């Protein structure tokens, strides 16, 4: 059995793609997931998996993930973010012509969440608290779990570990500053972890035993067309900024592993690391940023199926390379 470490990106509803990837990986008895580091939706997938794993093993984790995404979709039925008739007629998953999305998008640029939502009501927090048993998460000794957030005051990355995990830590990892109040934990304020680590990789290198890090990437790296619409420009800026920390970290770790002949590096816990990536740029690249707020069950199932097929294809082609070499061409991709 081969050990792998998972690095899960954030991306709102697009996290259902990662659900599909995890669903397939949990079925494969040739591998064992030793550690997971997640950000935003990636963090939610990670803690749900840990919760289910502690309750009922791999099958329990698969059931927990399915129940989580189904519950999120059910709750979103009452959300103002719904596809318009035009989007439905054209078969688009985006919310670009949704009156609710357009209204809140404009409002978020003019009014802060502290003014718009002074009572700091966050439905997602209520959902997570009701769906995830954090006592099980903290006791899930079969897996190492890391969740990334960004310290608002210092701008530094903060890693929360499984043994201390709470709902506030997961919410902090998914806290978009234009939509929610900063999350207060132990006197510090936190925003979305994607700004400093989407996801963070060093915990998987220094605190886990496996050599293989599997990056489940939601945000496209390359777009061939230059964005011209205001929404497309903003979307591309977000993609670049939310991928920047990942790209830098991958390249840094790759450079450090080349120095392994140095005894000092070995003593500091740096091991030869192999990088792999599961992504679906062709299927996701045409989805605008607004689709990350679309939680319709049909859309989530579609993303799940795309992720499931991507993981199946990757494993069929690359399983033999686990523990042997990187399948991610770092110079070409990052």
Proportion in β-strands = 5-15%
Poorly predicted ranges (pLDDT <50, ≥5 residues)?
Answer: none
What oligomeric state do the depicted chains represent? single chain
What kind of sheet is the major sheet?
8 strands, mixed
* CA-based shape: globular
Put simply, the count of helices is: 14
Q: H/E element string?
A: EHEHHHHHHEEHEEHEHHEHHH
As a whole number of angstroms, the C-alpha radius of gyration is 19 Å
| Overall pLDDT level | 89
Q: Span from first to last CA?
A: 29 Å
Structural class: alpha/beta
Would you report the number of β strands? 8
Helix content: 40-55%
Structure notes:
With 334 residues, this protein is α/β, with parallel strands linked by helices. The chain contains 14 helices and 8 strands. Strands 1, 2, 3, 4, 5, 6, 7 and 8 form an 8-stranded mixed β-sheet that branches. Strand 3 and strand 4 form a beta hairpin. It is globular. The mean pLDDT is 89.
How are the secondary structure elements laid out?
Layout: E1 2-8, H1 15-25, E2 31-38, H2 41-76, H3 85-89, H4 99-110, H5 113-116, H6 123-131, H7 134-138, E3 144-151, E4 157-161, H8 167-173, E5 183-185, E6 188-192, H9 202-206, E7 212-216, H10 230-257, H11 263-267, E8 274-278, H12 281-284, H13 297-318, H14 330-333
Parallel strand pairs: 1-2, 1-7, 2-3, 7-8
Antiparallel strand pairs: 3-4, 3-6, 5-6
Helix pairs in contact: 1-2, 1-13, 2-6
Short description:
By secondary structure, the protein is of the alpha/beta class.
Q: Descriptors for this entry?
A:
334 residues, alpha/beta, 47% helix
